[in-house]
Amino acid sequence: MFGLAETFSRQSDLIHLAAYKNELETIKMLHSLPKDKQKHFNELTKQLLENLEEPTNKENCAQLSRSLREEGNRVYKSKSTKNAVDVKECVLAACRLYTQAILTAEDAYDELALGFANRGMALQDFGYFQQAYDDCASAMEFGYPQKLHHKLVMRQAHCAWQLGNAQQLEEHIASLTGLQLNESYAKQLEHLQQQLKVLQAPEQLPQSPAVPRVCHKILSSQSRGRYMVATTAIKQGELIFTESAACFVPIEQRSRICQQCATSLLCAPIPCPACHQRVVYCSRRCRQLHAAIHRYECAAYRRNLLGMLGVSHLALRLLLNYLPQWLQQLQIDCCTADQLWQALICPAAEDCSVPIRQSQQSLCMITHLDKAPQEELLYHALCANLLQVYLFSCTNFCEGLQAISCQDWHLVIAALILRNAGQLLVNGHVGDAVVVDDLPSNEFALLQPRIWQRPYHLRLGCLHKLSSCQLSTAINLPYLSLCNHACNPSLRTKFDGGAVSNFAAFDIAAGEEIFNCYTLDYRHSLSEQRQQQLQEIYKFRCGCSKCARSKPDADYLAFHRYRCERAQCKQIFVPATHLNWWQQSEEQLSICCTACKEPQLMSWYDEFHLLLEHCDEPRMRGKLYTAFAALDAWLLDFHSLKLSLANELIVACFAANEAGPALDDRDYAELIKIIELWLAGIAAQSGSNSLQYISKLTYLLDMIAGRKHKVSAKQLQFMRDSFDYLANETREIFVNYYKDFIEQTS
Ligand SMILES: [Zn+2]
Ligand SMILES: [Zn+2]
Ligand SMILES: [Zn+2]
Ligand SMILES: [Zn+2]
C-alpha cells in the first residue's frame, strides 16, 4: 500500500514533461503515455484512492457516543446540588460532553439524534439560544422519536422567543396548538402565546453596516498591470476597502473552524456525520449553504485526502464554486477538450481592464506555472489529476456536466484545477484569528467550563486565554490581489471569517499607490530572504522604498543587537548568522561577536530557563525577575530574544497562578513592568493595531480588570479602540469583558 508521496513519486518516474504550453497541454501529457505505462499510471491513482478509505465501526462509535452522552447526563443532573456559579459550569461541562458524544457518533443516527436533543437542552440552559434551536432541528432530522417531537418543538419555541424571532415562534405555536399536552406544557404554550403578541409589535429596522467612503481606484498600465492608488488622503486606521471571499479552506489546525463562514469560536459544532467528523459547521444555516460544495468533498474528507494537497484543495473549491457560472457562459454545443478549453479561457483572457464578474476574474488572474521548475509543475499536475479522478470516480460530479457533451471532460477539469492552483500560488492569502491556545482538535473554545460565566462573557482574569493568534484559512481574495507588493505594506488586513477589511496602516497621501506585502515585512525579515521568496514565487525583485535604502535591514537588525560578553570587548554587535537561533534547534548554535570574533557563552539563557521551571516558588520567581532585568546587559533594546523570554515568563507565571493562587503584590508589580516592555516591543515590530499586539494585550487587561494595575483614561480608551481590529465574534467577547470588569473600575 502506497501513500500519497510514494504514489506521486512512482507516477513522476513514468512522466516526461515537454516544454510548458498551458494547463491543458500539461494535463494531456499525463494521459498520452505508452499503453502499458498509462495503465500503470492510472492504476496507481486508483489504488491510492482505494487505500485511503477508512472504514468505521458503527457499533463502536455508537457505544462510545452513548457513554459520553450518559456522562453528560450525569454532569447535567448534578447541577441541582450546586450554587449559581457552579450551575453554569456544570451546564457548560455537559454541553462539552454532549458535543463529544455528537462528534463520536459518526453515522450512528440514533445516537446523533439523542446527542443533539440533549445538547440542545444544555445549550438553552446556558443561553446559547440559536445553537439550541438548531440542535432541536438536527435531533429531529436524525430521527428523534416522533412521539417526543413536541418536546423539541416547545424548546424551539422558547428559543425563538428568546431570540425575538416572531415568525418562528408563531410557526412552532401553531404546530403545538391542538396537540394533547400535559398541564405543564399547556401552561408553557399559553405563556408563549402571550409573548408572541409582545414580539409582534412593530420593530425597528436594523441599521445597515458602514460602507467605506470611496478613497481608492484601480489603474492599469501596460508595463505594471493593474494596481491600486489612493484618490484622496487616507488617515491611518481608516477603512479602505472590504472584500467577501467566495472561497477559502481551513488550514489544518488543532482546532476546527466552520467550513462555511470560517468562524473559529464554535460552541455547538454540527459535524457532517459521513466524513469522520472532520468537517464541522457553526449552524444549520452554514451547513446548508455549504452543501453544494461538500457533496463533492465529503468522500475526500472521508479519505483525509484534502489536507495533503495544500493549495490544490482551494483550487478544487474554486472549481466547484465557479464551474456552474463558467458553464452558463459557454455557448458551444459539442466540443473537444481543446475547443472547450478555448471557450472557457479565451473570453476571460481577452480584456482584463473592464470590470468583470468574480468568476471570470478568477480565470484570468496571472500564474507563473510557465516559469515553474519541472518538479513543481509536475507535482501540481499530479494533484490536479488525482482530484479529477476522484471527482469522476468517487462522487456523482459528472452528472453536473451532462449538459455539455465532451468525451474529454476529465482533461478539462484537471486543467482547470491546475490553473486555479497556479493562480493561488501567487494570489492566495492566509487569514488569521485569535484562538484559545492548546486545545486538542475535539475541544472548542466556547465550551471550556472554567472560563465562561455566560455566553460570550468570560470570567474575571480569563481574557488572556484568548492570547494566541492562529493562521486559520487559505483564502482567495481577487480584489486584494490587485495590490502590488511593498515590504512596508499600506494595509492592515482584518480577517473576519470570509469577510476581509483592509485598513490604512499609516497615513496615505492622495495619489500614492496602496501596497500589500506578500512576504514577512521589513521589520520581520531580512531583505535578501524576501527577495529570494519574491523571486521564487512571484518572479520579481522588490525595489520598494525600504529595499532601496543603503541599509535595507536596519529596522530588522535593531531587534537582534547583543553586547559582547568579553570584558575587554563589550562591543555592540549583530551576529552574522543564526539571528533567531533559539527558535531553530535543540542544540545551542554558537553566536560570535563580530568585533572580537569570540563565541558568546550565554550562560544566562539556560539559567533563565532553569528558574522558569520553578516559577511556582516565590523565591525562585524573585530570582527570575532579577534574571530578566539582567538580560539588559546582553540583549539591547527590544531584542527579539528578550521579547521571547518575556513571553515565556509571563505565560509561566500566569499558569502558576492558575494552578493555585501564587502571585502577590510584588509579583504583580514586577510582571506589569515586564508585560509593558513586552508590549512596547511587539508594538515596535508589528504595530499596536496588529493581532499580535492586541492578543497579548489580554495579559495587561486581566491585570487591570483584577485591579492589580491602573492606567490613564487615555490609555484605556486606546486599548478599547484597538478591539475594532478584531473579528466580530472575538471583538464581542473583548468588549463584554471590558464592560464587565474594566469600565467601572476606571
Ligand atoms: Zn458558520
Ligand atoms: Zn461529509
Ligand atoms: Zn521591498
Ligand atoms: Zn567582542
Describe the structure.
There is one protein chain. This protein has 746 residues and is mainly alpha-helical. Helix content is 50%, strand content 9%. It is built from 27 helices and 16 strands. The protein has a three-stranded antiparallel beta sheet with strand order 3-13-12, with no helix packed on it. The chain has a three-stranded antiparallel beta sheet with strand order 4-10-7. One zinc ion (ZN) binds at residues 272, 274-275, 279, 294, 298, 301.
Layout of helices and strands:
Layout: H1 4-14, H2 23-29, H3 35-51, H4 58-77, H5 84-104, H6 109-126, H7 129-141, H8 149-162, H9 166-176, H10 183-199, E1 216-221, E2 225-230, E3 239-244, E4 247-250, E5 270-271, E6 280-281, H11 284-289, H12 291-302, H13 311-329, H14 337-350, H15 358-363, H16 374-394, H17 409-427, E7 428-435, E8 452-454, E9 457-458, E10 468-476, E11 484-485, E12 491-496, E13 499-504, E14 515-516, H18 527-538, H19 554-557, E15 562-563, E16 572-573, H20 581-584, H21 603-613, H22 618-630, H23 640-659, H24 665-686, H25 691-705, H26 713-722, H27 728-742
Parallel strand pairs: 11-14
Antiparallel strand pairs: 1-2, 3-13, 4-10, 5-6, 7-10, 8-9, 12-13, 15-16
Helix pairs in contact: 1-3, 2-17, 4-5, 4-6, 5-6, 6-7, 7-8, 8-9, 8-10, 9-10, 13-17, 16-17, 21-22, 22-24, 23-24, 24-25
This protein binds zinc ion (4 copies).
